[in-house]
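Obj.: predict assembly geometry.
Materials: sequence records (below).
Method: joint structure prediction, all chains together.
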Amino acid sequence: MSAPLLRVQDLRVAFPLRDSGDTLKAVDGVSFDVAEGETLGIIGESGSGKSTLGRAIVALLRPDAGRVELAGEDLFALPAPQLRRRRHAMQIIFQDPHAALNPRRRILDSVREPLDIAGEGSPAERTARALAMLARVGLDQAQAARFPHELSGGQKQRVNIARALVRRPRLLVADEATSALDVSIQADILNLYLDLQAEFGLTYVIITHDLAVAMHVSDRLAVMYLGRFVEVAPAATLEQAARHPYTRALLAAEPVALPSRLVTGARMPLQGEIPSPVDPPSGCRFRTRCPVAEPRCAAAEPAWRQVAPGHRVACHLVEGAAC
Amino acid sequence: MLTRRRSRVIRHRVAQAVPTLILVSLVSFLILHIGPGDPALLLAGEFPTEESIAEIRQLYGFDRPIWEQYLSWVGQLLRGDLGLSLQSREPVMDLILNRLPNTLLIVCYAMVIAFVVGSVLGIAAAARRGSLVDRVATGVATIADALPYFWLAMLMVSVLALDWQLFPATGAVRFLEDPLGAIWTATLPAIALSISGIAQITRQLRAAMIEVLASPFVRTLRAKGLSPAAILWRHGLKNVGVTLLTVVGLVFSGKIGGTLLTETVFAIPGTGSALIQAAINKDYFVVQGIILMLAVLVFLVNLVVDLLYAVLDPRVE
Amino acid sequence: MAVPLLQVEGLELALRAGRSWLTVVEDVSFAIAPGEAVGLVGESGAGKTLTGLALLGLLPRELFRAAGRVRLEGEDILSLPERALRRLRGRRISMIFQEPMTALDPVFTVGEQIAETLRAHTGLSPVAAKARAVEALAEVGIPLPARRAEDYPHQLSGGMRQRVMIAIALACEPRLLVADEPTTALDVTIQAQIIDLLLRQVSARGTALLLVSHNIGVVRECCSRVVAMYAGQVVEDAPVDALLERPLHPYASGLLRSHPRFAPHRARLPSIGGRAPAPGAMPSGCRFAPRCAHRTTGCEAPQPLLPLEGRAVRCHRAAALDLPGAVP
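Observations (raw structure tokens):
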């Protein structure tokens, strides 16, 4: 593998809580690489820190420790003006397609705005580029002249994609970007993601709680629980040979729309609730809900083990080469 | 039903009150010193001489540093000594204690009227939004807000008291000596004083109740089979409790200021009319004492409101 | 099918739009047998939530007009006066909602909110209702129920609040529970717990369930039969497995096939294309026709819901088409 486009090293983000004086460790020591043109899926439930991680990757918030390198450049070591000039290379799209658009601006203006701020080309050129990008995501000139409230949820998400891509980023982070959409609309948007990736050579980080979506679009998947990754593997491997008890529980918990004869294995819902990231359990953070936890799980944090090429697990009960 | 968390909140609020009280005393103290010119000159009356000014300066300690004056003033204050009236040479504290019951009576009476009428109008308007009740209530609130209340006071005096002789036109009866008579006499001033409060409470409560009735949990209550009355009076009322408390606190503070005019119009020997008299007579220690007393009163109302928040709203942290 | 517990016949709901009425739900018919679990699926705007609310008479009368029949044990809900509806709600038919954060009154303890339902429908004393509320919390798997009964909603997690909602809804042992997206706002592992709980509770009581959901996976886990809606109409009513194996309506097939599970890894998903029509702009014929890959002559005519192979389908070509289902 060539040098990765995105390299995240031991990233930590904590939020101080005003009332109690505690800190919420949203992201607590996460490291990974994403190669140019690759899609990494990050799966997690609420409190996992996946959204915070997404914002830190695109430098929307400053981590307390660790590095985020884009094309070999440490983003947080850059002076502010230089970081600002790098921002067009990394874009993020959020879940709520409406909240991200100014309700008083026409679609075209919203999409043109990044070009206006950068001052790229003449006004006519900028308009032409914005319109071309809108056309590329499937919105015509008439729709470009409308206001956000005149579009459907799926169309607004297309506008957000167009705005994110109009300055040709190298990295696109999508944070639950299809979660609010109906299945049939979600299919259209996922297709668009895949087409645009092929066309522009984009690198994706797809953050979602939806296993099926993540598995479909990602080359590799990372499973996150209470601020840490617990398992990283190629998508197909994770679907068929997940090793971490939490990943297995997630896979088993997903209600599948298959005829009964194709549904294998009884469902064993995980007991208990997700612990608070303010006071995570000692040792392995999943141990309080883990069906196979042992005393040593409380004593020490599990080290990363390589169980197959590209498949790493952080669990005491999984055998494999230390890595 | 106070949890440990809530009693901690209450202790915190009370502790926060100390600096406020110090500030209140400081402002009252500075009233005399902040104005242009020498306070001794102000106190010396219309025909000051060099000697009288010097005498006053020494008598009141104006020749000492200002912080020393403040500390000794606070020391007197803590002993209940607000100085003597320049006019009557009567202790200011006695003057206030003598008049305060009359003031408190009309303020509390006005609050009861504003609270009852405002709550009923506000809730009825919210419950039947867009109906005749709603339009009448909103109309009453708008008119009540626009009316100059001293004009209304004078109108009431001339019609209800002088023409129809239903109520006494002026004066006050001591509450402790004749409670019923005192309330009777205080009715017209209390109504006049309550008008803007009625408007405020009606409007705020209506808006808050409409918002509560539109919240998703009301659908759950309907799905449970609760009657509209139970939803309105049990759940609606408890949910607007915090708003109601806030607006009642605000109205109360406003009423304390409103006594100045009301007492003057109705010739009630209260602290409000005394303040105006003292201001006209340049009776500085009376002005200072009454302002301090009114400020402490407003402060106490706000403290009680803050404490009640913690009791009323389970979400107060 | 045995004597139905609930029978919906030709339900039509119209929303007030200024002076005119906009039909948002039309010709909705289905039945639920005692103790049966039926799923009502469809995408946003299909009219499934409105249908659910109409079953309890919860749509505000000044905004909605209902026609047709909704019979609960023979009694027509649509013609009942509000007072009679109130006696019915929470006692014979209950409802739970999606938002666990906002569906409970924030200033009452959860124990009070359960006890209140009991007191509204039974002659229980306040003390007895409170004791029963604690039992109800225990039944829905809330640890330390006596302590939790004194908690306010904001002190509980989303999953716990949804358990409380279930306890409220089932407190008076209703015959039918309408659950509107009860797990949509929850995390996957919590969703699994709540589904589990919901199923155990309704089967223990013999309560029938109408599960309103956009998630066919959740419906498969909970229900034996599914009613699929599109643009305000029922398009297919079938046993869940039969619909998943071989849907008869092109929309049902398209919906199932657009799920990422059935496409090869990173391949384009077979999408339906286009958007559902808006109320007021409905096609006069088959409402799905403009998006349908199997459209032919005859689709311009309004489509009735017709029985076929023991199901009901709103497509004149259903017998002739062989549509793919949720089978890899």
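Conclusions so far: Chain B touches chain C at residues 215-217, 219-227, 230, 234-235, 238-239, 241, 312-315 (CB under 8 Å).
To do: check interface contacts against the pulldown list.
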